[in-house]
Specification:
By secondary structure, this protein is mostly beta strands. Helices cover about 15% and strands about 40% of the residues.
Length: about 280
């Protein structure tokens, strides 16, 4: 009799609900469409419970608060709450944490956080523009469309190939600041396809540049970061000079370190800071 009562009570208990799996980011894609650049975040097991986007002046890593470099003249910070970007072993589930694109608007996508189911990314853009964020299903996706109401021209940048020789690749940049746009694209580095082909950026520990001026055929580039050449005979200075001298208005290039120093600041000659000497 007691066994029968126990069985009846047990049968009457409601089933314990099984928590829904946390959505996991499995892919990031960016592509050109008429009048816009489209950025797609694809998830497995549903969509993040919340998503937000805001333009920021700089990127900082979630948790550490350290600056995160991203190439672009505008930065959009995206956050997905209730989503992960890694597998059970902690390995990123969507690919590289930093990806460069050769699109008119989207320059770079950089991960800035993946902790306690909050996933964040910084989007480096060629220009601050209106955007639209929405979701799609089958598969689950968060889509961000960036308006590109401007025209661009192709500018060549110089990257190093696997044999140690400079190669030219082309990027869309917005006139009239074509030389500056080319430098921004240079510091973004190669796309995934170019990386697979063996191209890479010799960064020489430079994080970017703070200013570019051009006057009477002389371009002056002010680098940021703890720049040093590490004894190499080919540095970021060579890539900058090869990129800028493609423009007919630039004959000489003077490159400054983060403290504003270069070896030959005056005269119509090329110049690099002492820290980039072999």
């Amino acid at each position: 009799m007691r066994s029968l009562i126990a069985e009846t009570v047990q049968a009457a208990r409601p089933p314990v609900p099984v928590p829904a799996p946390t959505p996991v980011l499995v892919a990031i894609r960016a592509e050109r469409h008429p009048g816009l650049d489209r950025l797609v975040f694809e998830f497995r097991d549903g969509l993040p419970v919340r998503r937000s986007g805001t333009y920021v002046k700089r990127l900082v890593a979630d948790g550490s608060g350290q600056d995160v470099r991203v190439a672009g003249d505008a930065i959009l910070l995206l956050r997905f709450a209730g989503a992960d970007g890694h597998d059970a072993l902690g390995v990123p589930s969507y690919g590289p944490a930093r990806t460069t694109y050769a699109l008119p608007g989207i320059i770079q996508v950089v991960n800035t956080g993946d902790f306690e189911s909050v996933l964040s990314f910084g989007i480096g853009l060629a220009k601050r523009v209106p955007y639209r964020m929405y979701t799609l299903k089958s598969p689950s996706r968060v889509v961000v469309d960036f308006s590109t109401p401007y025209w661009t021209v192709n500018a060549g940048i110089r990257l190093l190939d696997s044999t140690g020789h400079p190669r030219t690749v082309f990027r869309p940049v917005i006139p009239p600041g074509v030389a500056r746009g080319a430098l921004v694209r240079l510091f973004a580095g190669p796309t995934a396809t170019e990386q697979a082909a063996g191209l890479w950026l010799v960064r020489s520990h430079a994080t970017g540049f703070s200013k570019l001026t051009i006057s009477r055929g002389v371009a002056r580039v002010y680098l940021t970061g703890r720049v040093r050449g590490d004894g190499s005979t080919f540095t970021i200075a060579d890539e900058i000079m090869l990129t800028l001298k493609r423009f007919p208005t630039i004959c000489w290039v003077k490159i400054y370190d983060a403290s504003g120093r270069t070896q030959r600041p005056k005269g119509r000659t090329d110049s690099i800071p002492e820290c980039l000497e072999p």
